[in-house]
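Exam prep: given the inputs below (a chain plus DQA), describe the expected output before reading on.
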Amino acid sequence: MAKSGVNLGRIVLGQGVPKIAVPITGRNEKDILSQAKAAVSAGPDLIEWRIDFFDEVTNKVKLHDVAKLLRDDLNDIPLLTTFRTRSEGGQVELSDETYFEICQNIIDFKQTDAIDVELFHDESSIKQIVDDARLSGIVTIMSNHEFTKTPDKDVIINRLSTMGEIGADIAKMAVMPQSSTDVLTLLEATNEANKKLTLPIITMSMGDLGKISRISGELLGSCVTFATAGEASAPGQIPISRLKNDLADLHLNE
Ligand SMILES: O=C1C[C@@](O)(C(=O)O)C[C@@H](O)[C@@H]1O
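Solution:
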């Protein structure tokens, strides 16, 4: 039975072919806007702004100005805004207080369709962000990254499940494989979690070894795949022009 999807602007996550997200990783306004132009012309389903790359992310006024300029350039392509902390593979380590302040600013600006919130922070603050996002009509994608290893299948499924219990609209888990067996662990966890959980999930096994996980989402149940239209934001991402063909070739017709 098909799950009910999550509306994100003009797209629905959790049904049919996985949606393609292209990240923007510029460090300043000029690079952010020129990457946005390249991303838009590559024709993704959604765009991710990785604000941890932005040099002025802690300057509220500047963050708001660039968020608005970016949004105006996206031609209605839905926007996901993500601050990835250093311990999860991002650019900057922050105190929880600053991390949540930035998340709150992003919600208050109302210039995004979705926000990424990392699972491993103070739980009551996460819940507050999820509630505030919902009140503002912003979708929460809760995430966890394991940048050095692939946890056991049950651990992956439990974390995705916990994200749903906390109130996320979508649960996301990225892991690093050390072997082909690790890749299979992530794929199996995806297949099981997708059947067990009511919320849509996003998973990936990073690096070259894990590339298969970036094209197998329709079969196993991962609803978004991240692709490049220039800079990659994580290892193993496939250029969008090729990924579109891969997803079309693997599309299930019945
Ligand atoms: O969570 C993810 C997934 C990702 O880490 C990947 O492996 O494609 C890329 C990040 O930009 C994004 O926030």
